[in-house]
Amino acid sequence: MSKSVEPPLSTENRLLAALPREEYQRLVPELHPVTFSLGDVVYESGARLDYIYFPTTSVVSLLYMMEDGSVAEAGLAGNDGVVGVALFLGGDTTPNRAVVQLAGRAIRMKAKALQWEFRRGGALQQLLLRYTQALITQISQTAACNRLHSVEQRLCRWLLLCHDRAESNELLMTQEFISNMLGGRRESVTVAAGRLQDAGLIHYIRGRIKILDRKGLEAAVCECYGFVKNEVDRLFK
After folding, report:
1. Which residues contact 45 (CB under 8 A, 6 or more apart)?
2. Within its chain, how far is the Cα of 67 from the centroid?
3. How many CB atoms within 10 Å of residue 113?
4. Rounded CA gap, 108 and 55, in Å?
């Protein structure tokens, strides 16, 4: 992760963009842009959280690590959310690990500044609480989806969620990374990706996935994607 010298752009994160101008201007001195690379660890499980992050062009996965080393994604955060909700929910650590799944930019804010602003009870507090509800919905739906739906459907869901938050149609990641996100085996992800490629929905080679037919993915995905998307869209109405 590297720091940038460019000023933060509120419009790149939908939560910050939704704030009243006066409230956003009060936050500006506390907002500092950073750049994430693919695979950067934003925070480790159980570590103290010193910052909260508002992704702009990056996407961050919230992962749970098992004792045997296996990994599964519980949810993801992009330009529609924040990373580090424990900071305004009364804690300073979190049980999950946060890892960058799509490289890009984010805006960070010191924990103490965020907590002070949250206690003011203004628009930021309301937005963060509503976002937490949307995140809980996403995590719950992901658990149900991983249990009840095929790897192919889960891959479609995950690709669409990433695409909603990405800058382009091309996503850079490895099969191992994808299998960790879906909680499945690499072999099953390979087969699922192959089927989507044969159907002309994606092109996948050497860690690069290019979405060719967005509407086709939407037709192939399970209902979980729409459920999560509707909850996020409701957040900004």
Report:
1. 64, 65, 94, 95, 96, 97
2. 24
3. 15
4. 8
Q: Would you say 18 and 236 are in contact if contact means Cβ atoms under 8 Å apart?
A: yes
Q: How far apart are CA 224 and CA 144, in angstroms?
A: 9
> Which pLDDT score is estimated for 11?
63
CA dist 222 and 27 (Å) reads: 39
Check if the beta carbon of residue 92 is closer than 8 Å to that of residue 28.
no
Q: What is the distance, to the nearest Å, from the Cα of residue 186 to the centroid of all Cα atoms in its chain? A: 22
Question: 229: helix, coil or strand?
Answer: helix
pTM of the complete model: 0.89
Q: What's the pLDDT at 74?
A: 86
To which residue do tokens 């989806």 refer? 145
The two structure tokens encoding residue 154: 């889960």
Spatial contact of 168 and 211, defined as CB atoms under 8 Å apart: no
The whole-number mean pLDDT for each consecutive block of 10 residues of the chain, a chain of 237 residues, reads 47 90 92 94 91 95 80 88 93 86 93 94 93 93 89 91 88 73 73 91 86 96 93 85
Measured distance CA(205)–CA(233) in Å, rounded: 32
35, β-bridge pairs: 2, 105
> Given its phi and psi angles, is residue 9 left (phi above 0), alpha (psi -120 to 50 degrees) or beta?
beta
Neighbours of 110 (CB within 10 A): 15
**Confidence at residue 136, expressed as pLDDT on a 0 to 100 scale:** 93
Q: Are 40 and 105 in contact (CB under 8 A)?
A: no
Distance CA 215, CA 180 (A): 25
CB 99 within 8 A of CB 65: no
- Per-residue pLDDT, 181: 67
